[in-house]
């Protein structure tokens, strides 16, 4: 394949990117998007604050633009994210207990129903585990009761039975980290009890504090062995030049080595599109030129 998407497709995988609706009028951006990628994740537009700014009032304009663009160009969509402790609208931040739980359930039902049949996979719950301990992260959602995650998954399944339902988190790449074990045990428990879950998203934001680990492939394999797909959902890699390129290639090789690793999404197109204010963590430079990291990722896909 001569593009990331085509090369991934030849391996039975997808290659995606986060997309911001306000960049769909940028010709360079859209040119790369349409040429290279066959999966998109709305970077912010499907989050709770964006889709339900006032309780019970849903606004889908920006997210719909991304979905329409994807459908018109033969790309699939990963939905992100139905329940998360961040980017909640102010009214939800001020709720607690059963009122918050009910609001969460209604939010998931409404958004998943609006996009029913259009989403390949939903990040149903995002970042619910604590960085250090491997236990649950304290949040207003967690304080509604430990069962909030399974309630979220059951609600999403009821609303859109055709979408794959994922648990998505960061710092879950290194098999030896407590947080990775915490998420692993959640998935194992859900599979044992029949709670609907189809996939685990490893965000894989790699930097000096959380570098690409040598046991990454082991982590992917161990999650897949629980009977779920694994997806690399928000990949970016701090650094530049050949070191960065080698790490991108290693991530691609690790995914291709695990049959249930169904695809890779990078968290933005050009370095200038990255959520990281400084740094050059992506595959295209600020002018939209292919970096060494791009070539390494493409070559690794084609070698698979
Ligand atoms: O749209 C407003 C704009 O109107 C306002 O003038 C400006 C002033 O700050 O803010 C703009 O909103 C920002 C938004 O991105 C759009 O650019 C928010 O402040 C900013 O907080 C928000 O950041 C996003 C971040 O999630 C929020 O948590 C990033 O774009 C987005 O890349 C990032 O993505 C997360 C994933 O969802 C979950 N995993 C981690 C990942 C990286 O942090």
From TrEMBL:
GO terms for biological process: xylan catabolic process. Coiled coil: none annotated. The lineage of its organism: Bacteria, Bacillati, Actinomycetota, Actinomycetes, Micromonosporales. Its EC number is 3.2.1.8. The keyword Ribonucleoprotein does not apply. This is Beta-xylanase. GO terms for molecular function: endo-1,4-beta-xylanase activity; polysaccharide binding. Transmembrane segments: none annotated. Keywords: Carbohydrate metabolism, Glycosidase, Hydrolase, Polysaccharide degradation, Signal, Xylan degradation. It is an enzyme of class 3 (hydrolase). Belongs to the glycosyl hydrolase 10 (cellulase F) family. Residues 1-300 form the GH10 domain. The active site is at 234 (nucleophile). It catalyses: Endohydrolysis of (1->4)-beta-D-xylosidic linkages in xylans.
């Amino acid at each position: 394949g001569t593009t990331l998407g085509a090369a991934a497709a030849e391996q039975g995988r997808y290659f995606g990117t986060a997309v911001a609706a306000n960049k769909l009028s940028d010709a360079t951006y859209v040119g790369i998007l349409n040429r290279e990628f066959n999966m998109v994740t709305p970077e912010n537009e499907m989050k709770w604050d964006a889709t339900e700014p006032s309780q019970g009032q849903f606004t889908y304009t920006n997210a719909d633009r991304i979905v329409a663009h994807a459908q018109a160009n033969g790309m699939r969509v990963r939905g992100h994210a139905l329940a998360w402790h961040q980017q909640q609208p102010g009214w939800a931040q001020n709720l607690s207990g059963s009122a918050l739980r009910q609001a969460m359930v209604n939010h998931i039902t409404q958004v998943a129903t609006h996009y029913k049949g259009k989403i390949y996979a939903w990040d149903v719950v995002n970042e619910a585990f604590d960085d250090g301990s491997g236990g649950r992260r304290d949040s207003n959602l967690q304080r509604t009761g430990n069962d909030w995650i399974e309630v979220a998954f059951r609600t999403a399944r009821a609303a859109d039975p055709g979408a794959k339902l994922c648990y998505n988190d960061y710092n879950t790449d290194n098999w030896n980290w407590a947080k990775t074990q915490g998420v692993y045990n959640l998935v194992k428990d859900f599979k044992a009890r029949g709670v609907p879950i189809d996939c685990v998203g490893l965000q894989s934001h790699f930097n000096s504090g959380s570098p690409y680990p040598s046991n990454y492939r082991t982590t992917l394999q161990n999650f897949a062995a629980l009977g779920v797909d694994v997806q690399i959902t928000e990949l970016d890699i701090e650094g530049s030049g050949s070191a960065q390129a080698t790490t991108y290639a290693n991530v691609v090789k690790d995914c291709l080595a695990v049959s249930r690793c169904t695809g890779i999404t990078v968290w933005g197109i050009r370095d200038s599109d990255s959520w990281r204010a400084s740094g050059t963590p992506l595959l295209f430079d600020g002018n939209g030129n292919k970096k060494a990291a791009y070539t390494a990722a493409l070559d690794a896909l084609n070698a698979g």
